[in-house]
């Protein structure tokens, strides 16, 4: 038997009222959880919102950094496995767009196994230092390092120049001008670990070496122009904090649970996470010894920033180098970098926490497997295997550690990029 029409209307209105009440209860609960935010806490929360992120800083060392033609060329180079020793490794092999431009393994795998965890790419155009130890001072200098590493791309400088001439000549010359003559140059030669390729490089006249190195540097600059376009999308935390500070009601898309709000309060308060993970990218771009244990596998001794800063200063692709487009006054970060001190020993770059929940394992060599274990590490504050850890025990309860983890999981959102830039061209 069909129910009376009036009864259906009443049932529908009752359901609507109950749904509205549930949403109101949810949002009201998020707004009223815990004590009110102080003025100082509100200001700290404001600085963490993605809305506080300024425009991309200029890169004076890369004159094509914001050239769309360079970004399009860099997009193709980023995915091109021909830029490797065995034709199987591209930048995207480890920096997987669908995984926040990382690979989900403890030690990156290229032509061999590296000694470090793959770092994500989003937002790195804002950072003055690249790599875990900051051994590069620009995105383009960073992009060049793996290309000549024997365990990453495993290729050589003349090989890359020949590849550009064979496959990208028109696009390259539209951005950088004419390619130099490459006739007579070895297929594989460069200042790399391979002794035969190194010897072949030494036999090339210095002027022609410079021609090849300029092409090599421009490959890095094109890849950097592409990477500059990879940014962050707003997270649930951003929507929550923006509404909270504006006094707007939270919605189902922005509301945080009581535990997530409590985790935010710990993050900017007693747990002191915000001391290093600050600003809208959740990083201070500095280097810290946080007592991270040595990897369980045998690796060469790693002194972190203590070695990295010297490599940055000595790099031929530094801001002050001959391949940089920067002027004499454009390289303050490099010129005034701290180069000595025990605080540099086993100090590693503070990673951004945006998207952190999807980037296990953690630390510079993937020593910690889960986000919960990361929080436990910072709570416990173990002694550093070398140098001195900056951490002090937090003495959090199990509930508080879970709340911190819950908050960190609100920082997830897909990376943002121009249409088509997250897939192979």
UniProtKB/TrEMBL annotation:
- A GO molecular-function descriptor: electron transfer activity
- Give a short account of its post-translational modification: Binds 2 heme groups per subunit.
Iron as a keyword of this entry, yes or no, is yes
Q: Where does heme c 2 bind?
A: 273, 276-277
Name the positions where heme c 1 binds: 91, 94-95
Where is the secretion signal located?
A: 1-25
Top-level taxon of origin: Bacteria
Per the record, the major location class is periplasm
| A single cellular component GO annotation | periplasmic space
Instruction: Please provide the record's keywords in A-Z order.
Output: Heme, Iron, Metal-binding, Oxidoreductase, Periplasm, Signal
Under PROSITE patterns, the record lists: CYTC (PS51007)
Q: What is the lineage of its organism?
A: Bacteria, Pseudomonadati, Gemmatimonadota, Gemmatimonadia, Gemmatimonadales
Question: For the Cytochrome c domain, which residue ranges apply?
Answer: 258-412
Q: Which InterPro entries match?
A: Cyt_c-like_dom (IPR009056), Cyt_c-like_dom_sf (IPR036909), Cytochrome_c_Peroxidase/MauG (IPR051395), Di-haem_cyt_c_peroxidsae (IPR004852), MauG/Cytc_peroxidase (IPR026259)
Coiled coil start-end: none
Please name the PANTHER family in this protein's record. CYTOCHROME C PEROXIDASE-RELATED (PTHR30600)
Query: Where does the record say this protein resides?
Result: Periplasm
Q: State the protein's name.
A: Methylamine utilization protein
